[in-house]
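G., before I forget:
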Amino acid sequence: MKKNNKTQCPVKEDLIASLIDNEGNAEQNETMQKHVQTCTVCSSLVYSFSNTSELLKNNRPEPVHLSPSFTAEVMDEVYGVEYKGLLDDIIILSRKVVTAGIMLVVILLAFMFIPEDAAIDVITMDEVLPVNNDVDGRIFEDVIEKEEITYDDVVSLTFTQR
Amino acid sequence: MDDFSLVRKCIEGDADAYRHIVDRYKDRIARVVYSMTESRSEVEDLTQEVFIKAYRSLPRFKFDSSLHTWLYRIAVNHTIDHLRKKKLAKFFSLDGLDEWLLGRMRGTSYADKKTPEDINRSEVKELVDWGLSKLSQEAKTILVLREYEGMGYEEIADVLEISVPAVKSRLFRAREELKKILMPALRGEI
């Protein structure tokens, strides 16, 4: 390559970048090195860019010290609970199991202690009569005498009618 | 465990896997965020936001690029968005200039120093920081990735979503820009 004393050199800028960063292929960099020895424009650029690059590398920012709770805070935000790792998962799972167990026991106890004749649902006679009268026109007097009948009474009536 | 296995576990709902990812990359991401913002007070919040954003984007993670370049991409884009919104870049440039002028008024001149050894390390650091703060965001980002993070051209291209020739071209322009800023300061012309 001929010596270039102009202020501009036709050599592409990406070749200079590759040479400084040692990123291009070996053959390309070797050709570029030979060119730099003869071209004042390129040699000046390579020199100043290399210096700038070294200046930056030698003055990298000090490490940033994040707070010790950084990861826990991210996990808290991401998973919506305070997260401390696998142990925390186990604690959460245990709590769920215990809560489900307690609910099951309460339901079982409720069934055991509810009296059998307890009026679960009270229906007025006016609601029942039209239904009963529709079945073969039969009226169940023992039921009609009551002011109020239970849901069980209605079920037994229907069963008897069938 | 390698990065891809951790990502797969995260997508399956394994919280512990994401904790490993955060622990593995938090310092590097924080350093990039700091290099771009020059604000230690904002690093923690921004880095947290990067990891929250990354977690929400995990189902869209393509296994054709590395996790660390993917995280860097989120960090760079998030920080640029932040700087744009608050117009911090402009503010910091002015602050940097003020500090520089104050330094000059106190008699700090790099041109007065006879040799590079005469310039003490903190002064050089101050000069470099000031020079970077004067750069355009595009130039600053690519120099941070190359010089501070030591990334190769392919990695930078992946992070910035540009071609390798575009990386070379941007790096050249960024170095030229920085040289133009630093040279007058070193000669004592500022």
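Residues 13-57 of chain A form one domain. The longest strand of chain A covers residues 122-124.

More on Monday.
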